[in-house]
């Protein structure tokens, strides 16, 4: 029988423009063989407090599988496949893409579609420090200390891109790219180039990810929802369009994902905001 514990905590106020939240997790009796790491609005930093994380399928076909005590995954448009153990314990950190340069010293675009070892980012000691901490509050304080020490104030994205990204997030991808370009006073081509240069995804790709993420949140909150109605609510043409996008971004249709993953992901404290799209 699955026993799961979650601990959700906000970062230090100084870090909040750059880090969305910390999530501690502990699962015993896990029976899911492979977890799908789905595309989302966040860059993910994951540290295992048990066995190394085994990524058996990368979001990008040219990157080989690997094992990591800690990793950072960039924005992506395909799932990462992570082998699961019966006992799992670790920390998941949601990073804001446009704050990555100030936090880790490189733009989000350099990580797009990739999984990178924490050691390659100068954080090789972080997994051991978290493992030595006695409980979740202490682990979250370690994260605050380490990330605040890395923070620099002299790197900021173009304000037009930051504004457009916030607009896209607020609308869950439901805003036209040409309208965003007009509102920031750029041509569509220039807007697309600058946006991709900062985030590593085109505006169209980012909108796809945000719509997809919205659909996933609604499925968690309303697992018996009519898929045709949910598709329209999330900005898809119809249920067939929704299913096509899920096959592309999750590697499976919504029904298969719900059967595989949903029993492990239903927790209102961990997955809030499904009704608002935030």
UniProtKB/TrEMBL annotation:
Q: Which Gene3D superfamilies match?
A: Homeodomain-like
Species whose genome carries this gene: Prauserella oleivorans
Pfam families in alphabetical order: DUF6597, HTH_18
Residue spans making up a coiled coil are: none
Task: Report keywords, A-Z.
Answer: DNA-binding, Transcription, Transcription regulation
Which residues belong to any copy of the HTH araC/xylS-type domain?
A: 175-260
> Can you name this protein?
Helix-turn-helix domain-containing protein
Q: Which SMART domains match?
A: HTH_ARAC
Please, which domain of life does this record's source organism belong to? Bacteria
Q: Which InterPro entries match?
A: AraC_XylS_family_regulators, DUF6597, Homeodomain-like_sf, HTH_AraC
């Amino acid at each position: 029988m699955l026993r799961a514990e979650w601990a959700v905590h906000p970062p230090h106020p100084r870090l909040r423009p750059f880090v969305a939240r910390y999530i501690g997790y502990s699962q015993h009796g896990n029976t899911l063989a492979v977890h799908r790491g789905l595309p989302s609005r966040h860059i993910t930093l994951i540290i295992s407090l048990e066995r190394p994380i085994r990524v058996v399928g990368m979001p990008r076909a040219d990157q080989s599988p690997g094992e990591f005590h800690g990793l950072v995954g960039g924005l992506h448009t395909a799932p990462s496949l992570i082998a699961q153990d019966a006992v799992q314990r670790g920390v998941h950190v949601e990073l804001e893409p446009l704050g990555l340069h100030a936090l880790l010293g490189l733009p989000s675009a350099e990580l797009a579609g990739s999984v990178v070892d924490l050691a390659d980012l100068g954080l090789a000691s972080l997994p051991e420090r978290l493992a030595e901490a006695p409980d979740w509050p202490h682990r979250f304080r370690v994260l605050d200390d380490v990330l605040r020490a890395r923070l620099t104030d002299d790197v900021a994205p173009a304000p037009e891109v930051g504004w457009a990204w916030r607009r896209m997030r607020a609308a869950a991808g439901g805003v036209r790219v040409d309208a965003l370009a007009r509102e920031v006073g750029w041509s569509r081509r220039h807007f697309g180039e600058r946006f991709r240069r900062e985030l590593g995804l085109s505006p169209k790709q980012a909108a796809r990810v945000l719509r997809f993420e919205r659909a996933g949140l609604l499925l968690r909150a309303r697992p018996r929802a009519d898929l045709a109605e949910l598709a329209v609510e999330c900005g898809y043409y119809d249920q067939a369009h929704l299913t096509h996008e899920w096959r592309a971004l999750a590697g499976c249709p919504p029904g298969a994902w719900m059967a595989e993953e949903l029993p492990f992901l239903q927790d209102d404290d961990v997955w809030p905001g499904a009704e608002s799209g935030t």
